[in-house]
Amino acid sequence: MSQSQILNFPFKTEKDTPFQRKRRVARYANSTLENKLRTTEYAKSYIKALLVASELSTKSLNLVKKDPEAAIVPFRQLTKLRAHVKNQIDQEPQDGSYQNLVNQLEKSQHKLWKELNQVLENNFKDSLQSLNWPTPIRPPYGLQLRSKLEGFEKAFHHLLLLQKSLEPEDDKTEPPGEKKVEIPIPIAIMLQDLSLRFRFHFEGSKPTNRLDKPEWYLSHVKTTASSHLPFLVTTVQPIVDSAGLDQTPRISVKDFFIYGLQQDVARKLKKTIPRILNQPSWLSHTVHEVLEFDKSLENEFAYTPPRSSDKRSADVILDNPEWFGAWFAAERQFAQTRYDEIIQDRQAFEAEAEEEGEDIGSNGKSLGSGGGGDPRNIKGTKSSVKILNLIESVTEAYRLVPSLQQRFRFLVEIQLTLLGHYHQRIYSALDSFEALSLIRSVPVPGALPESVTGVMTATETGGTISALKRLYRWWASAYTIGEGIRDWSEDDFFLDMQYQVSQNPKEAQTVMDSLPAHENMFALSLSSNWETPSNSFFAEALNAFDMLSQRIEKLFVKIVAKEWATNAREYAKKDTWWQTSSEQLPGEISSELYVPLQGLRIACQFLYSTLPLSDYLSVYRSICEEIQEWYWRNIITQNQFSKQGSSQLEADMTLGIWKTGKQWVKKPENYTKRLKEATKLLTMTFDGEQDKDALASQAPFNLSYNVFMKYLADPKQQSVLQAELGKLGIEVLSYGQMRDVLRRRNDMLHNWN
Length: 753
Hints:
Number of helices: 28
Oligomer: single chain
Helix content: 55-70%
Protein name: TIP-1 family-domain-containing protein
Largest sheet: none
Distance between the termini: 149 Å
Structural class: mainly alpha
Strand content: under 5%
Pfam families: RINT1_TIP1
Number of strands: 0
Shape: elongated
């Protein structure tokens, strides 16, 4: 500013004195001079920094061809200069001049880095060419190869030093926004030829580029990694270790090499998947192969991604909601279609062939019976075995999926849904069976024969055995599925997923919230057990199939009991129990009992030969209880018994019911204790001259009816009576039932007081 400008500057105010005006002008002139001096200093520093940067660049470029390691020293100095200037600006913000200086230094640094990198890359590529890379190099090395390896090791080392000289934020080999895992520069160069070979075979017009054969390029990548692994581990890894790269965790040449190969796979998948979304079988096959590929890299090469956040090959598909949704829909449709084929087969509930039906457990175990030491095996039906295999194939399809939410979706929407469908199929079949076979029709005079008012008998078409066989096929189906579910509940895969769900309930709840309201009960019951790891995913399904088995076992009992009631009608009409005879006491069963006993024997033998021992014993006990109830209701409480009649009843029990039962159990009389005790009471010796003094002898079976009846009615004699009952072995009958039984004896009617 000139003197005239200063004098003419409008500093004057109405209250200024001449002295104040002069002081104001002087201060303004001094500040202007200081600004000019400061600007001059900035310019000098700016130019000096640029001159130093230029000198360092020139020095580095002059040394790079003769001594690459020495050429990296000026580059490091330039890197430190840029960092120092940037740090000064951050601490003492100035005008935009220094920011421009930082930008210029950055440009100089990256320009020099590119020029140095170009020279060192060319040296490294020459060393690779001398080794005939990418031909696999396997130790031990010959003398001629050793000299070439020395050049390779030096070139590799120089590139690592250049990369190390960059600060982490300065590594901008990739354009902004595309920064990836920092693969060491020499390894990236080694991967270039391999990537070119991959493109040639699998991304061009070669016949090896087929959408339906993902295993071809995945196998190629594994073979490539395997063939170069010895060279990488024995030769390249020591070079990296000696370079002293300050990186945590330690740089693994093997892992970075495989990671680089995976980028080819990822690029291939991004091009392939959109083209096969409308080909469900190809899509499913591709996902399966890629999941197996990732797993094999871990198992065969101990591969670990360079960073925990790095994605595996399968994540390219699974992290894309559209692609995962298409794969999931394909798997669900495959499973549903296969399920429909299994159920619609006319032989769906026929027994599986022996060589195919023995291994029906998910762990390969034969589903034997529940009885200890019982050699019988349960042959699953064709549908149950195929359903198990189908559900296990679904497990294998998603077993390797890393996402908990995606795995849980497969479990809920496919596997539990299929189990629900199969359960409903058997349940509805049982409803129909009960409606058609067990509902007693009303007899109409002149209409159908009396025999059809109960269940089908052995003399009719099909008969009881046909009904039992049909029920058994459903029982075997439910039993087979139940055993499979028990195995899954103990499988490490489901136990681990169950624990993960308990730790991350929100992941599972997200899947549950997306389910339709009408989804099967097995899935809907899960949400109440998120935080209880002890409750299996399959607990509800297992309970449902166990209840199906129990329901069918009850139907076994109903069928046999009704068959007995139908066949024993003539026996129930028998009216000779009260008659006395001078003939010898009977030594064989009643003639009317042969037919019902034959039907009972055939039915029980069928059940014994098919059911596990523990289940059979439960069914047999229930059958005996039904027969016992039938005897009590139709024989004992409906008739009067003479001595001969009581003996005949005892013979029918001993030589008929109990002798038949000894084919399957040791003491069948213990399964009908009430009937056994009633028979004892009816066959007690009657002696009218015995009185209560007879009790003094404490002799078993030495008590007359009249004394016995008096003691039953006398509360004061309860202790004595109880002791006598213990001798007789009477434990089940109540006092009222004992009186009812004793009154059925003809002899007792004449001595009753």
